[in-house]
Amino acid sequence: MKKSLVLLISLIFVAASLLAACGTGGNASKPGNDGQQTAGNGEGNGKTNNEPFEITIRHTQVGESKKFRLGLLEDVVKKTEAAVPGLKIKLDGVDGEVNRKERLRGEMAAGKPPEVFDVMGSPDAELYAKEGLMLDLTPILDELGLTDKFTTLVPFTHGGKIYGIPIGGSIEGYFYNKEYFEQKGYQIPKTLTELEALAEKIKAEGKFPFAQASKDAWIPLMTTNNLWSYYAGPEITYGFKTGESKWTDENIVKAVAKHQEWVQKGYFKKGELGFEYADMRNQVITGEAIMMMDGSWANSVFRDPEQAGNMVGKIGFFNMPPVHAGDPVVVMQDANNGYGFSSAVAKDSRKLQAVKEFIRHMWTEEMQLRGLKEDGVLPAMKMDLNQMKTVSDDPLMQDIFKATSEIGTSFPAFDALVQAEVNTSLSTGIQQVISGEIDPAKMLANLQAVQDAANQAAQ
């Protein structure tokens, strides 16, 4: 058994009991026109098979904050069903973290993922593709004329083949209470020192400078990741997997220590380790906290009266400022989340056609602009910035467009560059740092040991 599969099975062993069985059709197969294996279904004699069949789309558009994205997906589903005789698409909504760290890992270990599923391009898609569990989309994208239409397919490209498609792009930065800033005469900080001085003033006024929710570790790690990318440079994260970089680097330690210092100074509300993602947004909406580090995708919450109430129109956005005035602005910017497809689809020509139609209808300029307008998701497909600006005149979206234009150096989120077990160890570690259970240097030393073991296992 390959080392990567052994690792995958060990990661999900505890969660495996939660999984629902998902079977695939057992039709005899024959070579298809595009070189894939396709199921015999009577199409070869010129007849159309209208017999009902089903595919499942596993998505993570669950909860009030993702209702617009779900609406877009549902419209694509209707178009896809109409284009393929007999097709019925089952939508299976699962929380993003549960899907990534429990459900999908278990299904992959069992060799039975859904036909279509939400997936992170790197490192997840690479691991699954190595085991032959993901459909090679290279010929399909070429057939549909989409290969060169994306800002990047790098996170989903492994061994020269494409194994997934990004659904949108994003940047990370600070949402802030613009009305509060104006009332107090505050300006957007231009350095980290100015950001900290601003945090001290806000704290003295009885507010929390930053909203935070750390029950899921990826949320506070947005702050940590951006800090170490300033202190140590964004290129350092690329070297962990190769051994060229060390988590024990003094500048990484300094960045994690800065995060812990902010916790100890009371810049975040006490009890953050028990707060859910939605709790963090509510701290801003209620005026309890003034700033919040989050992905640009969160703008949809603050533009929706049902979720943000009278705070609609009162929230702005700015990039985390550099350490020194005049330094380039460094920002997490990537397109690492999207959809992948089971390799088993290639054995059934009708399911393969359904996948092609889903791709044809989902990845269009119309849908990308609709996602931007309705939900504030930056396009994954190439699009002129001025064209994007004309889609939405919302002030918050204009702030995000401005922040994007100010980026000097961008980098992908750390979890796209390290192994799954390293991500898990860092997630546990940052929560321990936040609780004060461990100091940053010791946590990072422990993390480096996990990194060394993961690098060794990959050789």
TrEMBL record:
Listed InterPro entries: Bact_solute-bd_prot1, SBP
Keywords per UniProt: Signal, Transport
A Pfam family reported for this protein in Swiss-Prot or TrEMBL: SBP_bac_1
Listed transmembrane segments: none
Leader sequence segment: 1-20
Taxonomy, superkingdom: Bacteria
PROSITE patterns on file: PROKAR_LIPOPROTEIN
Region of interest: Disordered: 27-51
Family note: Belongs to the bacterial solute-binding protein 1 family.
The protein's name: Extracellular solute-binding protein
Organism field: Paenibacillus roseus
